[in-house]
Amino acid sequence: MIFENQYEQQRIEKAQQLKELGHSPYPHNITKETSTTQFQKEYAYVKDSEEKRDESKVTKVSGRIKFLRLMGKAAFAKIEDEKGLLQIYVARDNLPEGFYNSVFKKLIEVGDIITVEGFPFVTKTGELSLHVTNLELATKSIKPLPEKFHGLTDKELRYRQRYLDMIMNPDVKDIFQTRSKIVSITRRFFEEKGFLEVETPMMHPIAGGANAKPFITHHNALDIERYLRIAPELYLKRLVVGGFEAVFEINRNFRNEGMDQTHNPEFTMLEFYWAYHNYEDLMKLTEDLFERLLTELDLPTKMPYGDMEIDYTTPFAKIKWEDALVDIAGVKRENLRDKEALLDFLKSHEIEVDENLSVAKLQEEIFDEFIESKLINPTFLTHYPIDISPLARRNDEDPQIADRFEFFVAGQEISNGFNELNDPLDQYERFQNQMKNKASGDDEAHEMDEDYIHALGYGLPPTAGEGIGIDRLTMLLTNQHSIRDVILFPAMKPIKKENTNNEDGE
After folding, report:
1. Of 68, 280, 441, 476, whose CB has the highest number of CB atoms within 10 Å?
2. Adjacent-strand bridge partners of 267
3. Ordered domains of the chain (ranges, CATH)
4. Sign of the C-alpha dihedral, residues 22, 26, 28, 33?
């Protein structure tokens, strides 16, 4: 039996008693006329009226009982809907004969969802409330809510049972409503800029578009392996080859990697590609997007993030990759491209690395250790090494550098953008190098995508593209410090079921 404890059994018995009295514990065709906030707004005038009530106005409100105080012949309760809480007053003599004593007092309790009809009035303590003239049970709750004063504080339980988290912690709903607004504002922003929203495949024949380990599945009908996409990049750029000059997609990516405060194996990305523009245009567009988000979400330009204060005043700071290595990490400029000197630098800080790593990879190790966490205010880091930018265009002045940036806020990467590599021969050579890396044990290296090379062969116009993590963006704008707090159903380790058999196997 799934509902085993005594309190759940008692509620099941009450549901049965309701049936016997002719009241379904799970009726349908229940309508809701007014939300709790609409009630508060529409009938606010009652507070200033002489009678402190308006029996001519009758409305219907539905919600979950969050508080219930019985007082003999009457009761006060608070019901909660998506918008907020409303106090209701239930009196025996205002309900059908026998209903209050036989049904309401005995069989309806905290956690149940009810629909109440009545008129607005103000209590002696000055609270605008609904005086109930009719009450219906909408849903009987079998599982009791957590005890009021301690609530639901266990983080893991909150993530596993998000529905209960939302019932007990109303602020959680606010976070996800804000997330939804962020996506909606972002979509409108790009549409107004002339971008076309598209959808590209979730299952790929080749894992590409980013350096990451893929999830692998099997297509039974075709008897072939497929990869859950790690990025939509290569498909979106195919569309630019085909003639769409500004495209974007807001959708899921999947990466078969570890989980921590900023990583979930399933996450949401905005990716967009803009023909006849460059990465500097993307940085300006990113600034414009943040300005729009702050304006429409009614947020200030200076906001807390944990114990930090983030200043979103534009323009955002820009610093070149090698300048950051010198000015922030303390690498000597003359040693920036000297492999042995970089290895010595890391060893002097007791950081062990594979001595076969390239110069760019060693620089990346230094960045991860000494720079990223110090990029607090919005900062564009530009001019990345080409060796760690396999899809980006080479800089015309320095072929070892990519026309690329990453955008950081509060010590974490929020976006990645660059001028797209549109030379098919250069791209083919880089894919070949990636294949060598994969053969040497780099399981995150790109695979060869010959169809993409063919697409480039038809001509990709000068294009810039960027990806922005929606989850991390939401974390910033809601002051949340775990990605699990902005994903409704984050990935969780399975709960190990205890073996109920005894040692003798009886």
Report:
1. 476
2. 253
3. 6-145 (2.40.50.140), 168-316+377-485 (3.30.930.10)
4. positive
Please give the Cα distance from 66 to 80 (Å, whole number): 7
Half-sphere exposure of 70 (CA within 13 A, CB side): 12
pLDDT the model gives residue 444: 67
What is the structure's pLDDT at 2? 86
pLDDT for the residue 506: 35
Helices (H) and strands (E) in the chain — how many of each?
15, 18
Nearest by Cα to 140 from 15, 289, 3, 320? 15
pLDDT for res 504: 41
Rounded Cα–Cα distance for residues 465 and 278 (Å): 8
Burial class, 482, CB count within 10 angstroms (exposed 0-12 / middle 13-18 / buried 19+): middle
pLDDT value for 131:
98
270: left (phi over 0), alpha (psi -120 to 50) or beta: beta
Tokens 């947020």 map to which residue? 299
- Please check whether residue 301 is in contact with residue 294, taking contact to mean a CB–CB distance below 8 angstroms: yes
Is the separation of the CB atoms in 214 and 266 below 8 Å? no
Taken as a whole, the chain contains a residue count of 506
Q: Which helix (H) or strand (E) holds 121?
A: strand 113-122
Distance CA 175, CA 178 (A): 5
Question: Contact, 378 vs 316, CB < 8 A?
Answer: yes
Closest CA to 245 of 5, 501, 463: 463
Question: How confident is the model at residue 503, as a pLDDT?
Answer: 41
Cβ–Cβ contacts within 10 Å for residue 408, how many? Answer: 24
Q: Which residue has the tokens 């245009």?
A: 281
- State how far the Cα of 448 lies from the Cα of 80, in Å rounded to an integer: 55
Query: Amino acid identity, residue 51?
Result: E
Question: Which regions of the chain are under pLDDT 50?
Answer: 149, 500-506
Whether residue 384 contacts residue 411, with contact meaning beta carbons closer than 8 Å, is answered with no
CB atoms closer than 10 angstroms to residue 286? 21
The count of other CB atoms within 10 Å of the CB of residue 293 is 19
Tell me the CA distances in angstroms from 32 to 29, 76, 92, 115, 177, one per residue in order. Answer: 10, 21, 23, 7, 21
d(CA 473, CA 265): 17
Question: At CA 459, angle to CA 455 and CA 463, rounded to 5?
Answer: 100
Task: Tell me the pLDDT tens digit for each residue of 34-46.
Answer: 999 999 999 999 9
> Which of 265, 370, 379 is CA-nearest to residue 314?
379
* Amino acid at residue number 58: V
pLDDT for residue 331: 97
